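Task card 7
Instruction: Convert sequence to structure tokens.
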Amino acid sequence: MKNDDSGFTLIELLVASVMFFIVLAAIATVVATTSSSAETTRQTNDLNEQARLALNRVTRELRQAQEIEEVKVTGGVITGLTFTVDFNGNGSIDTSPADPERLTYCWDTAGRRLLLTPDVGGGMPCDNSAALPILSSDVQNLDIQLRSNLWQHDGSCPASPTPDGYVTWQELDCAPLSAGVGNRDGALDTIELRNINGVAISLTVLTGARRQVYETQVNMRNKA
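Output:
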């Protein structure tokens, strides 16, 4: 009679166990990497969508704006912008907290947020606790350039005398005093703001190593 020994030796079991755990570890690594990549993609897409919606909102409201009343400048960079919009078309700027028509957008550089603050009466309300984040995080940079259609003053500053197709508030400030569009004091004052009818905005968001820049140029159609 022939003996038919069945089963596995201890060495075979050990080899099989090691191979099983190697395959299991490889599968777990692939699953973890895929999950992490999917989460990163989701977060990036969410952030980019927030940035697009925020910029679209600012663009839409600035396009209807009648006047830029005030700006906040921090370190030579515009970080706050107050303007008025007659949303209901009644010919006046309403200050009702429920439906404000004087708006301020601010870039919170420390918190990396883009904030919206309704009119609270007087001054630049960027530090108002009622400000609402419309883009809550990861705003690495917000570049606001104010433009004018008074083309005759393009290149009016001695430092940049060659016209470039854009009239900035600095060029309005450099214009001859007789022109009445600037006061040559090197600061952005009411006299320059009243001649601004265009705004160029560049918004940079950053998450991890991913950076996305959104840009827009707005003409203020209802400039008073």
